[in-house]
Specification:
transmembrane helix, transmembrane, mainly beta, Dicarboxylate transport domain-containing protein, YdbH, AOC barrel-like
Length: about 1000
């Protein structure tokens, strides 16, 4: 190389020249690119805003407003032109160039986007969210979300609007937000007040607000949501306010980590919250949690401590009304681990209390529960190990307050239930995988203020273990019934619960005093229904069952199962079905008893209402009154329960199943009712029905009795009264009475009371005849019936051409009680009466007597005092001397003094002549054998030993059938030997006779009663 030739540049010089060339080229390229971008800025801007959308089938349009280098503003609409899915009033976009100098292809990168008043239309229906025409974009993002390492533009939203259409109405959300480098830095969203209505839901929401702020790597979230009212899915809310505060680390999307401290506080307060029948009023819930978190999504672990406090003014849970509710739950070592299947575990200590509670007639006060232990659960299992206690006071007033008329047993039970305290001091709950058991460390006890005790316990095992268990319950003392309930086994099945139980109880139960029940069987609970099935009869007994005016005493019987469950409960109703056997008891209000009863029972009820029927097949009813009113009868019928009362019908038969009466009854919910009965026309026949077989009151009507009669009546009652009345109509009745056969008895008796038997004065019974010693005809009795006696106003009967008239008297139903009366003789011819008497073959008396005879009747017999009789016309008396001749060992039956031709000789002395003929005694005999009297007076009085004394004074003449006179020779007069022989008493001799005699009336009446008994009549008072 020559010197004139230029020398080649050195290596550094060559490098500088190459760099300059590159820079020049870059400047030229950059200028050219910038010039190109500037010239094509509208195209680039459109591609940035809507090109990507249109490439994915989303129609869009842009209206550019301003352009400068690196930015532009525009208005954008996406979706259908007439109904866009997105509408943005103003978009401000800042972008920069990319190229080989950055190691990237030549292009444009969006640096920031600011959206003013963007409006997005969406729909949420049938559980699915739809953005209309933007749905393909959502699906693409779901399949391929943005990569965290990719540069993310800054995005700001100003006054954004989301119009959300739902099944329950439109909702509008507004708000502002900001994202930087793909991280949500700020959000302030508001939900406008809205009223939502739809299928099964109605809600009124106030303005809800969500605020989010991110500082460095931590995010604060605050949510407030007022609820004016809400009803749906069985739940309801009124005037509620929700506040949620949450602080935690912002998720690291690049490293897939979420580590840092977490703090949360939830506050919920409202006027009313309800779920079905359960509710709380004036409630406040505050929950806090402080802890740490680490991991990412499936490996997330949250660990910390928390607490929950709940207070409420009042509430209702499972039918229990509660006041002043408070609970405080402390949670320690809370751990949520997702890597092992969302397992949550914690150490818990909880305390809950209520000031008072009420469920029906049950009251609770100062009740408190304390529980502590370990809790762990995941979606498939729960592990528990808890121990706790419950204690408080209570009272039950289901039987009402103690009343003055309560039996002692019922009053004691009411006092015992009026106040008690209870304690379950050691309840253990354990659960592991599929095992769950509940045990009692010590028995659960309830102590009444009166000293009674109720004990729930289980010997040798848990009361619940893996859906089955057993327990025992014992009740005793302090006025409580003595009861034992042994549930030997119960089990929870897929259909419900089954249990085998046995119960024995003695004592007072509500309206039952001295009750005794023994039962065993199977209890089933399925689909909300409870049934009791017993393999054998249940024994029932009670000293007393209170039913108002119709209380039962000494009740006994058995309730036996049929083809259906004996007892069932479903939907708040109960049903009792079975057959009652061996029913027996007493009804003091009507002084009656029943026994040997059987009945079919099908009753159901809800609350205090009862429906169904009881069919009484056969029961023996007998009288228990001191003075029996009727003999045992059989009864059958049917009772129907409806609208809180009872109606029914019944039939009554005699022991031979002959119909006696039919009737109906009704008993209202107000305690008022009545029973009406009608015997129909009862026919009495010799070989059929007989009155004396029905009632002791009819024993005067001896068998056989023939005829007919009818009785109707009613028995009515109320809670405070008991009344009855009836009518007895005797058409005609022929029978044998103690006085002899009665012919044609008839009458109508209006009974003002049946229990006890009573009738107003003025009742009349008549008879055609009473065939006694002498026929009695035209019998007429006027009477009334008092509580314990028949009040006879008057009675008359025709006899001997005259009449016997009884003055008013009272005849007690109790035959052991004495009674008195007066019978008046009105011109009664005594001839037939004397002839029919036991001494009629020795005495003949023709006399029409009148007079008044007072008498008294007692168990000792009939006694007469100061009776006076007199003859109203002349008559005759003939007494055979055989009736007056003394017999050894027999007292003299009569003492007669007489006046014959002016000489008075006591007949008693004349009869003691030692067997020698005495003229004057002969005259006495003859005078009484044929005496025609002009006057007769008699005094009648009872004497000792039941004898009836009669002192008669007669004046008249000797009047033999053949005229008599005395014829004596002179020698007989001189020798006076006529005094020693029988001489005829001259006819017409004046007689003044006093006859003092007595008869054994008691013996005569007894003989007559025995005679009548042989004829078929019943012995009654003489």
């Amino acid at each position: 190389m020559s010197e004139s030739e230029p020398k080649p540049p050195s290596r550094p010089a060559r490098r500088k020249r190459r760099a300059g060339t590159i820079v020049a080229a870059l400047v030229i390229v950059s200028f050219a690119a910038g010039t190109t971008i500037y010239l094509t800025r509208r195209t680039i801007a459109r591609e940035v805003l809507v090109g990507w959308l249109e490439a994915r089938g989303v129609p869009a349009e842009v209206d550019f407003r301003e352009f400068d280098f690196g930015g532009f503003t525009a208005r954008v609409r996406a979706g259908a032109p007439n109904d866009p899915d997105v509408s943005i009033s103003r978009v401000e976009v800042r972008y920069g160039l990319t190229g080989f100098w950055q190691g990237e292809p030549l292009g444009v990168r969006v640096i920031s986007v600011r959206l003013y008043r963007p409006v997005l239309k969406a729909a949420f229906r049938d559980g699915k969210l739809s953005l209309g025409g933007l749905d393909p974009l959502v699906e693409e993002f779901a399949r391929r979300p943005p990569q965290p390492q990719a540069p993310q533009p800054r995005v700001e939203i100003r006054r954004g609007v989301l119009n959300l259409a739902t099944d329950y109405g439109p909702m509008k959300l507004t708000g502002d937000g900001r994202l930087e480098r793909g991280k949500l830095m700020a959000l302030d969203a508001r939900l406008d007040p809205v009223r939502l209505r739809g299928k099964g839901l109605e809600a009124g929401l106030g303005e809800a607000r969500l605020r989010l702020a991110t500082t460095r790597d931590r995010t604060d979230i605050q949510l407030t949501a007022p609820v004016a009212d809400f009803r749906g899915g069985g739940a309801s809310v009124r005037d509620a306010q929700l506040r949620l505060s949450l602080q935690g680390p912002y998720p690291d999307l690049k490293r897939h980590q979420d580590e840092g401290g977490v703090s949360a506080r939830l506050e919920l307060a409202g006027q009313s919250f309800a779920m079905g029948e359960d509710r709380v009023e004036g409630a406040s819930l505050v929950a806090n949690f402080d802890g740490v978190t680490r991991g990412w999504m499936d490996t997330l672990v949250v660990h910390g401590d928390g607490d929950v406090k709940l207070t409420a003014r009042e509430g209702r849970a499972r039918g229990v009304e509660l006041q002043q509710i408070a609970s405080d739950v402390s949670l320690g070592d809370v751990r949520w681990t997702r890597s092992v299947g969302d397992v949550v575990s914690a150490e818990t200590s909880a305390r809950a209390s209520i000031a008072s509670g009420r469920s029906g007639d049950l009251r609770l006060a100062a009740t408190r529960a304390d529980v502590g232990g370990l809790v762990a659960f995941d979606p498939k299992r729960v592990d528990l190990s808890l121990r706790g206690s419950v204690a408080g006071r209570g009272a039950w007033s289901g039987l009402g307050p103690v009343a003055a008329g309560d039996p002692p047993e019922t009053a004691a039970l009411k006092r015992a239930l009026a106040g008690f305290r209870f304690a379950a001091s050691s309840v253990e709950v354990s659960a592991s995988r599929e095992d769950l058991s509940i045990s009692l460390g010590v028995p659960v006890r309830l102590h009444t203020d009166t000293g009674g005790e109720v004990t729930l316990y289980r010997v040798g095992g848990p009361i619940f273990a893996n859906d089955q268990g057993a327990f025992d319950l014992k009740v005793s003392g302090g006025g409580l019934p003595e009861a034992e309930l042994a549930v030997s086994r119960y089990a929870l099945t897929k259909d419900g619960l089954v249990a085998k139980a046995a119960m024995k109880a003695k004592g007072g139960f509500a309206q039952v005093s001295g009750g005794d029940i023994e039962a065993e069987g199977d209890i089933r609970l399925a689909d909300g229904a409870i049934t009791f099935i017993s393999p054998r009869c249940i024994s029932l007994a009670a000293d007393r069952v209170e039913l108002g005016e119709n209380d039962l005493e000494q009740v006994d019987g058995r309730l036996c199962p049929g083809s259906a469950p004996l007892v069932s409960f479903a939907d708040g109703s109960w049903r009792l079905r079975g057959k009652a056997e061996g029913l027996a008891g007493r009804i003091p209000s009507v002084e009656a008893a029943f026994s040997q009863g059987s009945a079919t029972v099908d009753l159901s009820g809800s609350g205090g209402r009862m429906a169904g029927q009881v069919g009484l097949a056969d029961v023996r009813v007998e009288d228990t009154a001191a003075e029996k009113r009727f003999y045992p009868v059989r009864a059958a019928g049917r009772a129907i329960a409806r609208a809180g009362g009872w109606t029914g019908m019944f039939d009554v038969t005699d022991p031979e199943r002959r119909r006696l009466a039919s009737g109906t009854f009704r008993h209202g919910a107000d305690g008022r009712g009545a029973a009406d009965f009608d015997t129909g026309q009862l026919a009495f026949a010799a070989d059929g029905l007989q009155p004396a077989k029905l009632s002791p009151l009819a024993e005067l009507i001896a068998s056989p009795a023939t005829g007919s009669g009818r009785m109707t009546g009613q028995i009515a009652w109320s809670p405070d009264t008991f009344t009855s009345h009836g009518d007895l109509v005797v058409d005609r009745l022929d029978f044998v009475s103690p006085m002899g056969p009665v012919v044609g008895l008839a009458g109508h008796v209006a009974l003002s009371s049946l229990l006890p038997l009573a009738a107003a004065p003025g009742q009349v019974m008549t008879a055609e005849a009473v065939n006694t010693l002498v026929p009695l005809t035209n019998v007429d009795v006027r009477f009334g019936l008092a509580e314990e006696a028949a009040v006879v106003e008057g009675a008359s009967l025709a006899v001997g051409g005259g009449s016997l008239v009884f003055e008013p008297f009272t005849l007690p139903f109790d035959t052991t009680k004495p009674w008195t009366g007066v019978v008046n003789f009105n011109v009664v011819e005594m001839k037939d009466l004397v002839e029919a008497s036991p001494f009629g073959d020795r005495v003949d008396l023709q006399a029409k007597l009148s007079g008044r005879v007072p008498f008294a009747v007692s168990p000792e017999g009939v006694r007469v005092t100061d009776g006076n009789l007199y003859a109203v016309a002349p008559g005759r008396l003939s007494i055979l001397r055989e009736a007056l001749t003394p017999v050894a060992s027999t007292p003299t039956e009569a003492v007669v003094s007489g006046a014959v031709t002016g000489v008075q000789v006591p007949l008693a002395s004349a009869l003691s002549g030692g067997g020698q003929v005495n003229t004057f005694s002969e005259f006495g005999y003859q005078a009484m054998e044929d005496l025609a009297f002009d006057t007769l007076d008699a005094q009648v009085n009872s004497q000792e030993n039941g004898r009836l004394g009669v002192l008669m004074h007669l004046k008249g003449r000797h009047d033999p059938p053949q005229r008599q006179e005395i014829r004596l020779t002179l020698m007989e007069l001189i020798r006076r030997d006529f005094m020693n022989k029988a001489l005829p008493l001259p006819s017409g001799t004046k007689v003044d006779l006093t006859l003092d005699t007595s008869i054994n009336l008691d013996q005569i009446l007894k003989d007559f009663a025995d005679f009548q008994a042989l004829r078929g009549s019943h012995p009654v008072q003489p």
